[in-house]
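Title: Prediction job returns without error message
Component: structure pipeline
Severity: low
Priority: P3
Assignee: unassigned

Description:
Job completed but the reporter wants confirmation the result is attached to the right record. Sequence as submitted:
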Amino acid sequence: MPEITLTTFVDFVVKSGTPKLTCVRRAKDLYRQDYEPAFDFWKPLREAIVRMHKDGASKKALDAVLLGLSDKNKRKLYPQRIASYKKWLGRKSVEWVGCEMRLWKHATLVVRVNPELAVRINGEPYLIKLYFKQDPLSKTRVDAILHLIRDVFSEGYADFVPAVLDVARSKLHEPTKPIPAIDVLLRGEAAAFVTMWNSV
């Protein structure tokens, strides 16, 4: 039974044609290997954001993640994302709630759904997935992420708003209106993923 990340599954959903197969091959190669933090480009910043909110620290706490960065791309991009995240935070009051990773399953596919931030923002509860890439977020990607978060966290977090934070643009994406048949679409994509997984 393949177990993949939310990002991997959504990458597959938004692609069309042969790039879908490439996505599955890449996922299967990673599945066979042990997790390597060195290949998770945004991991230190993601963890620093979570730690800051858990500890109730000020925005300045994020600057510490810049100390000792040796990767030239991180030295270039991390300050930009930190500035954008601070801009989004502004004067918001953020209270840490926290949540455990949950699983979405269909057609023997297991998707790990792990919003980094379960918080109350100015008193309103949110489950937020952080998006660090420079590529703009497509509506299809946002809709898929929001649906999967809402689906697996319906129990215990029903009053929490699922959201995706485009960190580079300091923009929070929230649900606007129901997407007809999106559950059917995602289940169909899961079945297609499994079929390709079993064939490569």
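Comment from assignee: result matches the submitted record. Helices lie at 6-14, 18-32, 43-55, 72-89, 139-152, 182-197.
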